[in-house]
């Protein structure tokens, strides 16, 4: 990124609307087409909801090349792709803890979250560093039962001014998040924090979409093998690289040699296998 381009984007970032109303429209209502289109929206079949980042959204792909399109094409089901580039597990909670979200996205039979290891570093960022800033995250651990509560705020005037207007990831990049905003409870990008997020997300799912099957597709295998077992004990279904007889890192599975995002060819191969692994009924 050149200095001229950085200054141009920084100017736009500084002048953007950061009001809670604007953020709500983007994150929940999609007024500005933040998300991919809804596949098979008129279908009476049971929906599927996708969460994740650019891997799930389909950065670098046309609408008919994405995971959501392939999934909709093979199942005929409505597919709600609620992923955006630069996002991660925080954005699942941000959406699922908002009552308005459930008015827009109908109860799905399957929820599929595509995880890759870049989400770990994003967990400790105090703000969403792609698209408009959407919230600030504060972690609170209750000593009695070791539970964690997450407070996602959008209306703190001081933080709004300092962070929204003066921190831009494209200029100072991720060093700000790595060094200035480490939280005391979580000093490193650990599986512990990821697991705590999952526990609260699972609780939100049971409150609103009790019978939905929540699947985590580990595009990147977790370093801690015990994490998979613990995630399954929480009630999540897991899919890992070991479930596929393919090389995820080969050139044909990526958009290009320098771009690690999954290619259309990747989703052509992987999507039918996911459908088979989950035993998704193609007639309902």
Biggest β-sheet: strands ordered side by side in the sheet: 2-1-3-6-7
Radius of gyration equals 19 Å
Kindly report the name of the CATH homologous superfamily of the domain at 35-119 and 187-278.
SGNH hydrolase
* Percentage of residues in helical conformation: 40-55%
Low-pLDDT sequence parts: 126-136, 165-187
Could you report the average pLDDT, rounded to the nearest whole number? 78
Straight-line distance between termini: 48 Å
Alpha-beta content class: alpha/beta
The first-level CATH class name of the domain at 35-119 and 187-278: Alpha Beta
CATH level 3 topology of the domain at 35-119 and 187-278? Rossmann fold
Number of DSSP E strands: 7
- Tertiary shape: globular
CATH architecture of the domain at 35-119 and 187-278: 3-Layer(aba) Sandwich
Strand content: 5-15%
Strand/helix succession: HHEHHEHHEHEEHHHHEHEH
Largest sheet: 5 strands, parallel
What does this structure look like?
The protein is of the alpha/beta class. It has a domain at 35-119 and 187-278: Rossmann fold (3-Layer(aba) Sandwich), CATH 3.40.50. The protein is 41% helix and 12% strand. The chain has 13 helices and 7 strands. It has helices at residues 3-15, 20-29, 54-57, 67-75, 89-96, 101-104, 118-123, 157-166, 169-172, 175-180, 191-208, 225-233, 264-278; strands at residues 48-51, 79-81, 110-115, 136-141, 148-153, 213-218, 237-239. A 5-stranded parallel beta sheet has the order 2-1-3-6-7, sandwiched between helices. A two-stranded antiparallel ribbon has the order 4-5. The protein is globular, with a radius of gyration of 19 Å.
């Amino acid at each position: 990124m050149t200095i001229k381009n950085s200054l141009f984007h920084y100017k736009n970032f500084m002048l953007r609307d950061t009001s809670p109303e604007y953020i709500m429209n983007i994150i929940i209502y999609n007024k500005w087409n933040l998300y991919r289109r809804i596949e098979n929206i008129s279908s009476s079949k049971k929906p599927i909801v996708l969460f994740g980042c650019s891997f799930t959204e389909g950065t670098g792909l046309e609408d008919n090349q994405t995971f959501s399109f392939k999934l909709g094409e093979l199942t005929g089901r409505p597919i709600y792709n609620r992923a955006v580039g630069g996002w991660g597990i925080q954005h699942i909670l941000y959406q699922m803890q908002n009552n308005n979200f459930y008015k827009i996205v109908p109860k799905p039979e399957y929820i599929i979250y595509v995880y890759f290891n870049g989400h770990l570093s994003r967990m400790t960022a105090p703000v969403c560093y792609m698209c408009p800033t959407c919230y600030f995250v504060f972690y609170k651990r209750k000593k009695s039962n070791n539970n964690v509560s997450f407070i996602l705020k959008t209306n703190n005037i001081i933080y709004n001014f300092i962070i929204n207007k003066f921190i831009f990831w494209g200029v100072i990049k991720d060093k700000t998040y790595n060094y200035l905003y480490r939280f005391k409870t979580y000093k490193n990008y650990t599986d512990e924090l990821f697991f705590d997020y999952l526990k609260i997300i699972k609780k939100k799912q049971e409150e609103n979409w009790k019978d939905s099957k929540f699947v985590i597709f580990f595009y990147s295998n977790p370093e801690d093998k015990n994490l998979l077992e613990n995630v399954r004990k929480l009630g999540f279904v897991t899919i890992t690289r070991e479930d596929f007889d393919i090389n995820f890192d080969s050139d044909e599975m990526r958009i290009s040699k320098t771009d690690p995002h999954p290619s259309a060819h990747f989703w052509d191969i992987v999507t039918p296998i996911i459908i088979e692994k989950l035993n998704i009924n193609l007639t309902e």
